[in-house]
């Protein structure tokens, strides 16, 4: 698909008149010979943003490429930490709800050791405004929230994770001191995304595969902090602080080892990195990807998989849950349908098995299908030991 630049109007709408500037002392410059780290991220220019879904899809999944400096290195299986900025609309709503101006000075004990900062900077770059910590909920004055605090804890935590601070304060905190609320907010955390490129091929760039998060709570449309940010920042600007998060337990095996990779949706990202290793596509290499999503138009990187399939280096099994005229199919259904061959790879070929994706909805179904597969064939072959499930997995249950 073609590149999708952020228009000037879209960028202006995102920042909503809230200006911000990264303090260069807190970050590594692209021209520096210092490796980026969580404590000092790299200000990385975004050079590619292209939509991966085809016409007819209901989703927006994008491929992003960032420039890195020479010292920032990564390996297949690693993640890229992205330090987001919260949009001007959210910041403005929070300022208005709390009765503050953007120029008002605020401090927080966990931000720059209590240094005073303008409220607009504190809210856009440092404090999480999209969720409400339980400690703030305990200050609520509304009867609804008092009842929730005394009721089901899971429902309470779900509610607090979905409501933004400005709405919570307006609906539940009449007369509560805004400074007390601010002191209990959590610092805005970086989000980790599986890297979808191999540095031997990508050089001083890094790729991410990210689905834009949009959801509705109490009839109000909301969006994921980081995916919203990535979608709107202008191409070419060094506005994105990033760092590499190592994952030593999520490494591809020797290319001589047959490998099954289960990665629905953006869970395919690390397996694209695996498959970019030239030796993984050498004669005799055996790789099997299970991919699933809503529609065939959501089949990510299919043009890259096709030649590998033709060469016999890669087998791909796809499942689509909303394909018109066909019954719903999920990757766990494909696993059950092909259980005999999977068992042969596991038991006879001693393959490695990797899973990446959503921990809340996908992982339980996939784990159940794998257990059923192993139990079925173990009994048939009278084997006593069970392969270790989910030994190499990278799962996420958070909205980004």
Mean pLDDT: 89
Please work out how many helical segments DSSP would assign. 15
**Biggest sheet descriptor:** 5 strands, parallel
What structural category arises from helix and sheet content? Answer: alpha/beta
Distance between the termini: 23 Å
What topology, given as strand order, has the largest sheet?
14-13-12-15-16
Radius of gyration: 23 Å
Shape: globular
Commentary on this structure:
By secondary structure, the protein is α/β, with parallel strands linked by helices. It is built from 15 helices and 16 strands. A five-stranded parallel sheet has the order 14-13-12-15-16, with helices on both faces. The protein has a four-stranded antiparallel sheet with strand order 1-11-4-7, with no helix packed on it. Strand 12, helix 11 (269-275) and strand 13 (287-293) form a beta-alpha-beta unit. Helix 2 crosses helix 3, helix 2 (88-98) packs parallel to helix 7 and helix 13 (331-337) runs parallel beside helix 15. The longest helix is centred in the last third of the chain and has 20 residues, at 362-381. It is globular and about 65 Å long. The model is unreliable at 1-5 and 382-392 (pLDDT under 50).
